[in-house]
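Encode chain A's predicted structure.
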Amino acid sequence: MLDRYNVDTKGKHTVVIGRSHIVGRPMSILMGRKGFPGNSTVTLTHSHTKNITQITSQADIIISALGVPNFLKAEMVKDDAVIIDVGITRVPDDTKERGYRITGDVDFENVSKKASHITPVPGGVGPMTIAMLLKNTLLARERHRKSNKNLLLIFKPEINRFRFFYANTISCSVWKFRASSANSCGCNFVLVFILSNQNTIRSSKV
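Encoded structure for chain A:
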């Protein structure tokens, strides 16, 4: 995303909020690496960091993946900062049909008035993640095109995760899962991408 919008990261102070193994720590490594995006001076913070406002108010780039709705306030951000909101939390909301709304870590309404770039929630990091997942799926297909095995990417609603499997045939009749938590995730099927050694990709609802 930083690459797409040509956001300069060299020599910038990047503050990452959140220390998870899947977002916070990898992002701190990415932003500190030699390359682009990267070459930043990175500060990794979390929910127990003292004087976090003092730290974030000095940041040129803030990447928040804490999971606390509206944690990052306008007074914690300096003018023209770049804000990437990775947080996603369901907040009860009786005005919505599903009874909740999706909220990020950033107080978007107020922080957006100060930021030079900011990602909304929903509609920001989420769609980009899906696009990159599909891109990597296509790349995986190219890598396994000459293999006798087929690579299957399966979304399993009961664990709300994607999983890769290898199969000797392209038949998906055996790949049936019952989504025990289908109602909670709003999904009642399993999405299967079958990457065969042929030149086509098929998807099906199992």
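The two ends are 33 Å apart (CA to CA).
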